[in-house]
Amino acid sequence: MDYDLFDSFVEDLLGERNARPVIIVGASRIDELLYRILKKFLMPKSAKKSLQDELLEGDNPIGTFSSRIKMVYRLGIIDFQLFLALERVRTIRNRSAHSIEFEPQKSPIREHISELKKIILPRKSYTMTKERYFKDIQLDPIKEIQCTLITICVLLEAIKDNICEIGHNYDAVEISKK
Predict the structure, then answer these.
(1) Tens digits of per-residue pLDDT, 31-55?
(2) Environment class of residue 174 by beta-carbon count within 10 Å: exposed (0-12), middle (13-18) or buried (19+)?
(3) CA dihedral in degrees (102, 107, 110, 114; nearest 10)?
């Protein structure tokens, strides 16, 4: 993990005081991390280097936040609970990005945030994130969302750093050549 880059992202996220930009920025970072995980896990693209990835970019099969979430789960890269959390983030992000009025304290956003917190807050990684970035601070609703999103990013960064590249499965590739 590039700690300086990650800390810069955290500083930007913590600088936001309104829920809408916190959610949009956090979800954008999560989407980027899912892209990086899949890019590392999958075989290299077959398109020319100058062209976009035929799976992961643009209007392609794994080019959306939704499809990336589903793919990392279906490949066994994340557990079901993190999958559910990512789906909640996506739903909240969509509501914040596509609605004129966005109020996290009103239904149905309140319920989505509550469900997201139920999944993430019991995790050890949440406690560690809270201790690192919010030490001795009482978390208001915005800070809880920030801490939750940062926790998810920490988990995805760790997954990205520890994922094995599928391209190393030479035995399977050799079978395909026969």
Answers:
(1) 999 999 998 888 777 767 766 677 7
(2) exposed
(3) -150
